[in-house]
Automatic annotation (TrEMBL):
CDD domains: PLPDE_III_Yggs_like. It comes from the Bacteria. The keyword Chaperone does not apply. The keyword Nucleotide-binding does not apply. One of its GO terms (molecular function) is pyridoxal phosphate binding. InterPro entries: Ala_racemase_N, PLP-binding_barrel, PyrdxlP_homeostasis. Signal peptide: none annotated. It holds the Pfam family Ala_racemase_N. The lineage of its organism: Bacteria, Pseudomonadati, Pseudomonadota, Betaproteobacteria, Burkholderiales. NCBIfam families: YggS family pyridoxal phosphate-dependent enzyme. Residues 28-229 form the Alanine racemase N-terminal domain. Belongs to the pyridoxal phosphate-binding protein YggS/PROSC family. This is Pyridoxal phosphate homeostasis protein.
Amino acid sequence: MATISENIQQLHGRIERACLQASRPVHSVTLLVVTKTFPATDVREAFEAGERRFGENYVQEGVDKIEALADLRDCVEWHLIGPLQSNKTRVVAERFDWVHSVDRLKIAQRLAEQRPAALPPLDICLQVNISGEASKSGLAPAEVAEVARAVAALPRLRLRGLMAIPEPAATLEAQRVPHRALAGLLATLNRDLGLAMDTLSMGMSADMDAAILEGATMVRVGSAIFGARTRPTSPEG
Ligand SMILES: *Cc1c(COP(=O)(O)O)cnc(C)c1O
């Protein structure tokens, strides 16, 4: 079995090839290493292989790993990518660097109130239900403008962009469709609202190449690095 470090090296090769195909600079795509269900020792291995950004789905599991890896805290970023309930916003505002899964204004308002003044602003992405799946969380595309305008005006937060978990699709061409839609939405919002959002958080192990072809700036990858998750979990958490 390949080691975590070998998988990471391979993954950077895959990112480079997709960037080359898209005529994009390699450094325009950031790898967010998704560590949910994997132990802190695996995260440390990814750190030792050069990774500095880690994504967790569950607040408590994330906080446990942040604590287990407290010695790395100053040189890594922790991103919350899973659903966030209002009763968990305080610990997130205090412990994380990014939240990708903001899907209503109330959550952003609480994060803004609770972000400690001593910390830099919390980086925020709005989650969009880009495939229109009834079971999925995320704002409907038509709702995003109103929420984006309000979130951009909140203190202690920095609205960085949009995040999506598109419906799985079998072919590269089919995978590109929702990613293209999210990229189009970001461009429209920046133009219409005068915003400068710079982050398209899209692409996972199975559809990362399609996401990069459509402009992803941050890909969120777990199983291609750590192997299959044994604890059952959906991409939503
Ligand atoms: C689990 C998860 C990922 C990573 O998925 P893989 O298929 O393991 O690469 C990315 N984004 C979110 C929101 C997730 O929950």
